[in-house]
Design a protein that fits this description.
The protein is 52% helix and 6% strand. With 141 residues, it is mainly alpha-helical. Among the domains are: 1-51; 74-108. A two-stranded antiparallel sheet has the order 1-2. The radius of gyration is 27 Å and the shape is flat.
C-alpha cells in the first residue's frame, strides 16, 4: 500500500532538511578540525623550540600534555602493491607475482560489489522556483 501523497511530501522535506543539516555540520566539523590541527601544530612547535615537552598546560575546560603516538597507515591498494614488491624483492628468487595477486584481489572486489538504492540530491540554484507538481491523475475520479 502506497503512502498518502502529503506523507511522502513530508518525508521529502525532512530528507532535504536533514541532508542539508548534515552537510552543514560536516563542513563545520572539517573546518574546526583544520583550525584545531593548526593550533596543535603551533603549540607543539613552541613546546619543542623551548624544550618543554614535559609541560602540562591547564586552562578552563582542558589539560594538555605533549605526547607521541604511533600510527599505522591504512592498507590501500597502492600501499599493498609497494609491500608486495618489497616482499618479493626480499624473497630473492627473482619472481615478482605482485601484478597477478593485485589482479586477483581487484577481481574479487568486483565480485563483492553491491547495488544500494539511494536518493541523489541536486541543489537547485537560488531564485529559481522548483518545478510545479504534476497534474492530478485521472484514476482518482
Amino acid at each position: 500500500m502506497a503512502a498518502p501523497q502529503n506523507e511522502i511530501g513530508s518525508w521529502v522535506r525532512n530528507y532535504v532538511h536533514y541532508d542539508n543539516l548534515a552537510n552543514t555540520y560536516n563542513k563545520q566539523a572539517g573546518a574546526s578540525r583544520k583550525l584545531r590541527d593548526d593550533f596543535e601544530d603551533k603549540i607543539i612547535q613552541n613546546l619543542r623550540a623551548n624544550n618543554m615537552q614535559n609541560a602540562i598546560i591547564q586552562v578552563a575546560g582542558a589539560r594538555l600534555q605533549y605526547s607521541e603516538e604511533k600510527t599505522i597507515p591504512n592498507l590501500s591498494m597502492p600501499r599493498l602493491e609497494i609491500y608486495l614488491h618489497n616482499y618479493f624483492k626480499q624473497k630473492g628468487n627473482g619472481i615478482d607475482e605482485t601484478e597477478s595477486i593485485l589482479r586477483y584481489i581487484k577481481s574479487q572486489k568486483l565480485n563483492d560489489t553491491q547495488i544500494v538504492a539511494k536518493l541523489k540530491k541536486t541543489v537547485l540554484p537560488s531564485g529559481i522556483p522548483p518545478p510545479p507538481p504534476p497534474p492530478p491523475s485521472n484514476h482518482l475520479k
